[in-house]
Amino acid sequence: MIQVTSVQCEYQHNPIGIGERQPLLSWKLEATSGQRKVNQSAYELEVASDAGFHDIMWQSGIIYTEQSTFVEAAGLISESCKRYYWRVRVWDGDGVVSDWSPAAFWETGKLKGETWSGQWISAPLAQLPADAEQVPLLRKTFTLRGQVKQARIYATALGLYELELNGKRVGDTYFAPGWTSYNNVLQTQTYDVTDHLTAGNNAIGAWLGNGWYKGNLAWSHQKEIYGNRLALLAELHVQYEDGGEEVIATDGSWTSAPGPIRMSEIYHGETYDASLEHPGWSTTAFSESSAWQSVEAISQTYEVLTPQINVPVRKKETLKPVEWLTTPRGETVIDFGQNMVGWVKFSVRGTAGDEVSLKHAEVLDAEGNFYTDNLRSAKQNIRYTLKGESIETFEPRFTFQGFRFVKLEGAVSAFERDAFEAVVIHSDMEETGKFSCSNPLINQLQSNIRWGLKGNFVDVPTDCPQRDERLGWTGDAQMFIGTAVYLNNVAPFFAKWLGDLAADQRSDGAVPFVVPHVLADDSYGSAAWGDAAVIIPWTLYASYGDKRILERQYDSMKGWVSYVEAQGDQPYLWNTGFHFGDWLGLDAKSGDYIGATDRDIIASAFYAYSVKLVRKSAEVLGREEDAAHYAELERQVADAFRKEFVTPGGRLSSSTQTGHVLALMFELLDEPSERRSALRLKELLEASKHHLTTGFVGTPYISHVLSKHGMLDEAFTLLLQQDYPSWLYPVTKGATTIWEHWDGIKEDGSFWSADMNSFNHYAYGAVGDWLYRTVAGIQPEESAPGYKRFVVAPQPGGGLTFAEGELETMYGRIRSAWKLGENGVIELEVTVPPNTSAEIRLPGAAGSDVVAESGQPLESSAGLTLLKSGDGVIVEAGSGTYKFAYDFNGQPAVAIS
Prior knowledge:
21% of the residues lie in helices and 30% in strands.
């Protein structure tokens, strides 16, 4: 029997406030326990206006297809601010139909282009001048004439905002409306507030904060990049039980007063004076004083408004202190045991006017003292002035910190020690991947990689979350995307960010160094950084199977390639302009951040790779003329690369680890030169005593290249090194996230530097991709994207006795787990979700006759088809769980084609 489970609309379960007029629907299937090779042969969809499906608006009829992801209700165009219920049933390969899925829904927000009745409102300049540090509160009272059936708020802000209704916080999301290219895109949010309202008198209030819109950004201390006035736009839509409707909107009837937040900045923290609170200000019982003045309606565009694209930021977990410290300097410091991003919630009891502060740091120095020099100008300071009423509990609203350690200052005796907790926040992405193995250091590395993603995926993919930077560096995101798609469902997260990338892209196709673009006007166009415009959309497509991401980014992808095509002073090469090169490569000259690899080689290699991916994208989208054009351009760029950078004897002109890695990874060499390059890479590793010299550009690919070219042992040797430079060196130093520098903390406890030494910098966590693809062996197949068909090809090594990887795909959970027994037998367990198939490559299997599956001879096992036997064994598997066992000869898995 087959059942429909986990129905999703736009990657979400029952989303409210989406902006798609034709949203895409997906579902997963579940088969009877033990049943194998289960596929969908047909589906039927229904959409209704009610959960009981009495008023059916649209029916698909029976559609004979295996498609169960990203299905469109063809012809149904969603209206603004409306809920649609849907359900689906499917037929299996034997023609047996499932039950209808439980009713699910999607609800649209106020769609792009819709008219707003609300006005943009701001605190009057006479009350809070544009340069004021204190931020405002806005409020309004109103009367509802009857019982409320349903109520929604549609809102956004210039700056950040939080809403309250009748004294209660609205929603569970933070940092709305998010950070976008505000001049091009401003997201709006939808809140279900039905339970917040009552017949009769009600009150609504809003906090506003500087956020990314008005606050400090980047190390140059820029402020007010987008504007200098905070403003709110909101509409409360009420449906009464009697069928009537009413809208309460932002307008001149609202009032404003300075709030208790005296300063709020993303980088610097928050200053809060509890004596300036307005108790009950968002309730009907509140009586306004003379401090409250009428707001000003300001002129601001509505054209850039669009419903929320990305998943919102939410509180995800809390951590308690693991230790209270008194440092050698006498500082009182809390250790939360984990470098994280968020804030501290705390309680105090003391005298009115007493002030306490919390300063945040990632590390202690060599003597064990509190250390913040690496934050540069970012203060990361929470200051709280007590009002003197019993226990006061506080947590900030519009700032976040990157930290593990917190130093308490001021009236320290006022703190309630048992009440401290660190609140972890990040974009609310579904966790999809798990990896573990027999080596605890690798497991800690995997944990560090995951925490790096958590801390740097706070609405945009930042390089670091603590110092005066926290920007959406395109290069870092491009280098990490292969790992990110295993760890979490990052499709909506990057869909929003890629939209900003396209919006901020220059008319000539140049891509900014950071997105949203907030740096100097010439901060565009570096190789490997700008290639994010191509590599990230393609990786998302391969991982999720959502062709729409290619459709929406295709012009941006082409634009980048066109920009590169126009740069070189020789045809089909990119040998001009500024590039970050192999950033932080360890073969750099003394005092230089850029590694030794010829930047022209890096630029031309990425040029070739991006052309290849745009060609593939054109093929997927059916752009035949484009595909032919880019196929020819791909050939010409590769030829030019070989003529310029490969000697007649087959040697690469820039013989560095990164140079060889890129040439091999992007398949730019002919077969003889490829063999020579792989051999030279091995020689370079031997010369460096099997340590990395690669920087940001080479590190993500080196393990893949080694394992692909018969050097699996070398790849494991690199992974398992524990001295500098290596992935595990920071682990041995107590790291709980990925560092910016391999030796951010040196052997003697001193630091690499103060000016650029982040201890939460995810780029080198790109090795996580290799752990999933090679050690666990879970790999997507481009011909059937989204894991409709995939490969499981684990490659044991490195002294590991077991490894396990799991990946929750759009079809269901894939699992690959192997262990080596003392008797020389390897056991491999693979789970293939319903409606998918897998090619399973059994590592070290001498032939099919020595392999058992679930205790039976392999060739008689249900659900399997033998594809190859002899020098390696390959089987095709339908859905189900398979348990293989055989003598392991210690050889690598069948070579990956």
